[in-house]
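Hey, resending since the last one bounced:
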Amino acid sequence: MDLSDKIFNYCERGQDPGFWAEPLNAITNVAFLIAALLAAVEYMRMPRTSRGLSEAVLVIMVGVIGVGSFLFHTYATRWASIADIAPIGIFMLAYVAYVLRRFVGLNWLLVVAGLAIFVASLRYAATIQCNQQALLPITAAATNRCLNGTVAYLPALIALAASAVMLAGLRHPTWRYLAGATVLLILAMTFRTLDLELCGITRAAGRVLGTHFMWHVLNASVLYILLLAALRHGGCKLREPVA
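The structure tokens again:
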């Protein structure tokens, strides 16, 4: 496998290998930078004694996600795909651990067990093969990429929704943040899934657009909400974690 091989997965790029073949998909990654910047402002407004390293790292990671995604939607190579996917995966693991430790108050042994289950679900999702005609005929344009690759994010959606329900049951104030983020993520995943299918009817100035850019905008909103939950309620625990 050559890391310089080109990847043509999105409507806006088509089969064009050029750097600016996906202008809308590339530019909308600024949404992640805006989310990180707004969260950084929120972080700096917090009392010094309340500013935790974990929250700062989460904020920085969202900015890195935007940079990685920009690289992928401009260079469109395998190495750029790694730069896109790796920060997202790391953030998902970090936030799952954060929820279990800070919000739920589990000890580290249970946090590690939860992460192991989450990683296993991610690995399983990556192996799922879809019969497009039987599952969802409208996504057949993605051929062998199940739901246009969006199936890989199902574990994250399930974990987010489950966390919202669990925190609601525990009456933790962050449940509303996570519930709202869950709704936005469902919408974001829908736009990501239908990118190729709606390619022919999403045009502007003679160019095809697709809907992948909405995945960026909505996903950045999801991450911003998650950051706010951490920044505003990271110190609000129902009980101290048992070491």
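Strands lie at 203-204, 207-208.

Sorry for the duplicate.
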